[in-house]
Amino acid sequence: MKKILLSQRVDVIERYKERRDAMDQRWPCLLYEAGFIGLPVFNHAETLIAALKSTQFDGILLSGGNSHAEYGGNAPERDNADKILLSHAAEKKIPLLGVCRGMQSIVLYFGGSLHKVSAHVSVRHDIGAGRNVNSYHEYSPELLPDALEALGKSGDGEIEYIKHKSLPITGIMWHPERETPFSSGDINLIKTVFEGKQ
Fold this sequence. Notes:
Elements: E1 2-6, E2 9-13, E3 18-22, H1 26-33, E4 36-40, H2 45-54, E5 59-62, H3 76-92, E6 96-99, H4 101-109, E7 113-116, E8 121-128, E9 131-136, E10 139-143, E11 148-153, E12 159-164, E13 169-172, H5 184-194
Helix pairs in contact: 2-3, 3-4
């Protein structure tokens, strides 16, 4: 089975003075159902760079969680980790899927910007092509860089689905891991991204 590196959110536990890398347990379940093995990676830059050099893998998934520091978030180490993963994916042409915050990271990496949105947390909406998806985000792309194209938008015009024009990099603003049961459309999308059929 192909191996997919999975980024992790940062949970700040004030009571214990800890910053924890964490991941929804549904992510490895969803990837396994799609035919892949998820391998979590840390938000420690040196460890991450060493892992990219020494670990054999077939794709990268940037998961959701944590706003970016420039938009009020409290996990700059995660911002840096996403940049490292995106840089590696772009340089090596490795398939990458960004989910929610992960899609935001793609937009920012290639020179775009975000803006705050309303009515996009704990709702569902149509994004075109018969897709109805969940939504749990406060920021959406404001400026989409030239390297990226929009493949789907919500009814209020917010960009929900993007693809790089020349690299195997895709971004979605919804959370496929939060669907019960997992959506066949999301499983097919994941397979398309990581089996190189974009």
